[in-house]
Amino acid sequence: MKKLTISLAVLGAMLLGGCASQKPGYDYTAFRQARPRSILVVMPTNDSPDIKGATSVLARATVPLAEKGYYVFPVAVVDEMFRQNGLTGGHDIQSAPIRKVREIFGADAILYLHVEEYGTSYQILSSDTRVSVSGKLVDLKTGQTLWEGRAKHVDNGSNGGGGLIASLVSAVANQIIGSATDRGYQVAATADAQLFYYGDRGGVLMGPYHPDYQKDYQNDR
């Protein structure tokens, strides 16, 4: 069931990305030259009022990156290693010197994520769950930025019909259910998939463990 949920999130991201308006493409020159094989995903920074935002977005980042053909270091192991070295939050971890990070983990690149929005909110006749996230992939050998992107996904549930009172009751119920079950965790899967597959100007290129590796280079301009 968990794999099915993740696959549906990725499929949803692909469909949404296909409907998005075209924007100037990302310049992948540095990405192509670096050719990273392994990615270290660290705890995101979090501007949302929900403390679960960072951990949820982090947990959902591994699968789409692995499906794109990269070796992704186990995020729980990575986070624990940082904790043992006195770094416990996204800001502290993302401030760590990249030279030292590479010495410890041996990864090719590090992914910095930032949660801008996360959680369920009540808005008159609707109850929306929003996850907005940005990411930056940095070469751990040179410190050069290889890729940057941003994505947002909104799930407003299904309030159905029944008039004003029914809509109000449904909206409140959706907010309570969304908060109690952390619907944001589910929405984060789609937001992360959108980020890595499409971003706002283009997604992460296919990695060396994907059968289409380097085939997408021709479409990166």
How would you sum up this structure, described in words?
The longest helix has 19 residues, at 163-181. Strands 1, 2, 3, 4, 5 and 6 form a 6-stranded mixed sheet that branches. This protein has a single domain, classed as Rossmann fold (3-Layer(aba) Sandwich), CATH 3.40.50. It has helices at 2-19, 29-34, 52-67, 75-84, 90-94, 98-105, 163-181, 183-197; strands at 38-41, 45-46, 71-72, 109-123, 126-139, 145-155. It is globular. By secondary structure, it is of the alpha/beta class. It holds the Pfam family GNA1162-like.
Succession of helices and strands: HHEEHEHHHEEEHH
Unreliable stretches: 15-22
Shape: globular
Number of strands: 6
- Computed structural class: alpha/beta
pLDDT averaged over residues: 84
Blueprint of the fold:
Elements: H1 2-19, H2 29-34, E1 38-41, E2 45-46, H3 52-67, E3 71-72, H4 75-84, H5 90-94, H6 98-105, E4 109-123, E5 126-139, E6 145-155, H7 163-181, H8 183-197
Parallel strand pairs: 1-3, 1-4, 2-4
Antiparallel strand pairs: 4-5, 5-6
How would you summarize this macromolecular structure in one to three sentences?
It contains 8 helices and 6 strands. The protein has helices at 2-19, 29-34, 52-67, 75-84, 90-94, 98-105, 163-181, 183-197; strands spanning 38-41, 45-46, 71-72, 109-123, 126-139, 145-155. Strands 1, 2, 3, 4, 5 and 6 form a 6-stranded mixed sheet that branches.
Identify the notable features of this structure and list them briefly.
alpha/beta; Rossmann fold; six-stranded mixed beta sheet; 6 strands; GNA1162-like; DUF799 domain-containing protein
